[in-house]
Structures are given as C-alpha cells and as structure tokens.
Design a protein that fits this description.
The chain has 457 residues and is an alpha/beta fold. It is 26% helix and 20% strand. β6, α4 and β7 form a beta-alpha-beta unit. The longest helix is centred in the C-terminal third of the chain and has 19 residues, at 399-417.
Length: 457
C-alpha cells in the first residue's frame, strides 16, 4: 500500500464540505487513519509549541530541525524527545525523507520558501507559518508546486480555521451589512526596541560573536552573507526587510483574512504608501498607512482597504463616521468592513464578528444567517492532519488561498518599504510604474539556495 493517502482535486478557499477521494503519491508506507510521521523545521519557542500542542504530538514525531540547538533545547527537553536532531533541513530530508510524511515549517520568513519547497519536492505534506513566503515569486511558485507535487498544504493563519471568520463571511454574503466599499485594518505595533522588534542605531547593526549552538550561515539561508548581530536573532528579525516583513507581514495574513475571504479579493491593482515614519535603510518604520485598491468583480464594486500600524492620530486618519463609529479604532477591534447598511468588525485573528449598529447586531443574534460554510474541528493543525489521512477536506488556508493572501500582504510591504505607489499587473506578475522594484518581486538568493526554477519551465 502506498504511504500517503490524501485528497485529490482542487478545493475552494473555504474548503468543500465533503471528503475528496484519496489516492497515493508514490511512497510505500502507512494507510490512511494510522499515525503520520511528522517532522518539525524550527523547533524552538512558542511557535513550535503550537503545532506540538495542537495535534502533531498525537502523531509520530520522527525528526526535529533547528539552526539553534540552544534556542530549542527547552522544548526538546520538555517533549522528552530522543528523535534525530538536525541543524540543516536539507540533510534531514536527504537522510530521512523517505520516513517523513509531513513537516511543519516554523522558521523566520526568509527561509519559509526553501524549506517548504524542499519538502514538497519529496512528496511531503507541508504546514508553513504565515506569511507563506518572503516574496511574491515564491508565493506563486508554491502554487505551482502544489499542483505539481499533489501534497496537502496549509498556511498558518489560525483564524481561518475558526468559527468566527465563517460567521463573518456568512453574515456579509447574506447581505446583512449591504455593499462594502471600504475596509479598515490596524495594529498598534511594532514596539521598537522591545522583545520582538529591534531599534538599531546604525545599519548594519553592531556585530557580535556567533552564540554557542547557532549555525549562523544556515540561519541566513538564501539571504546575503553578513556578520551575526544580536539584533537579528533569535526574536527581532522581523524589523529587517531582508528577513522579516514588519507588522504587515506579521499580522496581515491574520487581520486581512476576513475581508479577503468574504469579499473574494484578488491581488490589488494599486497599493500606495500614504504615510510612514522615517527609518534606517532596510529597517521597518514605527508606523505607516497603506492603501490597497481592489477592482470590482461580478459580485461587488471596487473596494479600498486601509492598513494602519504604529501610533496614529485617529482624528485625522481612518475616519469612518458611520453607524456610530468614528474611526478604525471603534470598540478596539482590528478590522472593520464598511457596508451600506452597517459595519462588521472583528479582531486581529478574525474571531466572532461584531455588528457596530445595535439594532443590526440584535438582528444578527436573533436571525443568524444559515451556516453555508463547513466548520473545522480542533484547529488548523488537525484540519491539515485529517486531510493528509483522507479523513477530511482540503484545508481552507491551503497554498492556493494562502499564496493569494500573502501576495496581497507582500505588495503592501513593498509599498511601505519604498514609500511609494505601486501599480500591479497581476497577470504578468510585474510592477508597471516602478520596474526597478521587480527585483524585489523575485529576490536573488545565495548559491545553493535556489528552488523552484524548474516549475516555471
């Protein structure tokens, strides 16, 4: 019997309610419904504790990989693991690829793509944390890889598997708030100089000796070689565009998920940086406003979406002035969809919707729209694991959906990074008004870190 039974066919972003037929992809091994052999790439901190606690520890954990043995030592000790440990996922796959059914990728953003595609090439199912990739070409390449290698995929924006986002989508599609033309999303971070975001005085930041247990060259992966700095690792890499993608990259795939799904938003035609604070070259700003322009489709008209991060003067920006809401901070929520009949809001990770108008909220409570979207039991990891076994539908945040959401976020990051207006031709995958920025749509990589080129031939 073939090793990996999984779901065939393409699923919609919301996932079909029926189970797809199972078929095999080439490795001898276990039937569906038995335990899977799961490996972790990125084994330190809470980001690895999440999959461990939310379903993966119920399977066979067969290998762990991390470039920093000291950073992940506490997790491995608590998990009482004696499984093989690697600092290089490429070596892990070469030695154990035939024994691994599925892998969770929890590395910094800039190494998501290489680790993910290396697994997919071997027929290994993949769960990759958000944002799916570090650049747009990588996101589009993973969609091609999904089609080529026929593995079960999931991007880790947890709220997509929750009931709350489904209630929001159902409420909008039932016409509860009418026609939506504006969306406001926000996050109060980053807290520069805090635990998770560096605030360097110079670029490059001060170098330091490589800590014990850290394979610095492997941590850099595809990124340009440079000295180690405590400002980069272990927690503050999101402050640097070479490795992370700031607040929009960190939270965009969570907070934009509700409007992208509900309104069926495709990549925008225009993204503009309305404002941003000054920052050192290569470092994220302490605050910005990014405006996305989405074309209309056969179900709705054009939509604008404003993203705000950092401190803002809400008397001047994010004005709503409808249905009792003054601005985007109304009721402390992170996202508001502004409709002709009312406002629908939700939190940073989607969550249960709030209707701003009390009468409308009571109407929603008393006459909740019928459930048209299937519910997910046990969260995104179990959703993914069930799909691999053929016990459930394709995950809702599979790479087809996850790549589109990530592309939207990445366009905003580019506009923020270069403080400019970007005109995007989605068909060609090109920036048309600043062709020089296409060098960041597909970034160069170091020798030995090139993946996916053959998928475009």
């Amino acid at each position: 019997m073939k090793r990996r039974n999984f779901l065939a066919g393409t699923a919609s972003a919301c996932a079909a309610s029926s189970v797809f037929p199972a078929f095999s992809i080439g490795k001898e091994g276990k039937p569906a419904n038995s335990k899977l052999n799961v490996a972790f790439i990125g084994s330190g901190g809470w980001i690895a504790q999440q999959p461990y606690k939310q379903g993966c520890s119920d399977e066979n954990l067969v290998a762990f990989c991390d470039v920093d043995s000291e950073h992940c030592a506490e997790n491995l000790k608590n998990w009482r693991t004696t499984q093989p440990f690697f600092d290089d996922f490429r070596v892990m796959f070469d030695k154990m690829g035939k024994e691994i059914d599925a892998v969770v990728v929890s590395t910094p953003d800039h190494t998501h793509f290489a680790a993910t595609l290396a697994a997919m090439e071997r027929g290994i199912h993949v769960y990759t944390q958000k944002p799916l990739t570090h650049n747009i070409w990588q996101a589009r390449t993973l969609v091609k890889a999904k089609e080529r290698y026929k593995v079960v995929t999931q991007m880790g924006n947890q709220g997509h598997a929750g009931d709350g986002i489904r209630q929001s989508v159902e409420a909008y599609r039932a016409g509860l708030i009418g026609d939506v033309t504006q969306v406001y999303c926000r996050n109060s971070g980053p807290q520069m100089g805090g635990q998770h975001f560096a605030n360097p005085e110079t670029m490059p930041p001060p170098s330091a000796p490589v800590p014990k247990g850290l394979s610095w060259d492997l941590w850099l992966g595809p990124a340009q070689e440079r000295p180690f700095s405590k400002e980069y690792h272990p927690l503050k890499w999101r402050s640097f565009y070479d490795f992370g993608l700031g607040m929009l990259g960190d939270w965009g795939c969570h907070t934009l998920d509700t409007p992208v799904w509900a309104l069926e938003l495709d990549p925008p035609t225009v993204v503009e940086c309305v404002s941003r604070t000054q920052s050192l070259e290569g470092v994220i700003p302490t605050g910005s406003q990014i405006k996305f322009h989405f074309a209309g489709n056969n179900k709705r008209g054009p939509v604008t979406l404003d993203w705000f991060d950092g401190p803002q003067d809400w008397a001047k920006v994010g004005r709503i002035d409808k249905f009792g809401a003054e601005n985007a901070t109304h009721r402390g929520l992170a996202c508001w969809m502004v409709g002709s009949k009312g406002l629908l809001g939700c939190g940073t990770h989607a969550g249960v919707p709030t209707l701003a108008d009390e009468q409308l909220h009571q109407e929603w409570t008393k006459n909740t729209p019928s459930q048209t979207l299937p519910r997910v039991e046990g969260g995104p990891f179990r959703e993914w694991l069930r799909a691999i076994k053929g016990e459930g539908p394709e995950p809702g945040s599979n790479f087809s959906y996850g790549a589109k959401l990530t592309e939207i976020v990445l366009l905003g990051v580019l506009a923020q990074r270069f403080n400019t207006r970007i005109e995007w031709d989605a068909d060609s995958g090109k920036i048309t008004n600043h062709p020089e920025l296409n060098a960041f749509v597909k970034e160069p990589v170091r020798t030995g870190w090139s993946y996916g080129e053959d998928l475009w031939k």
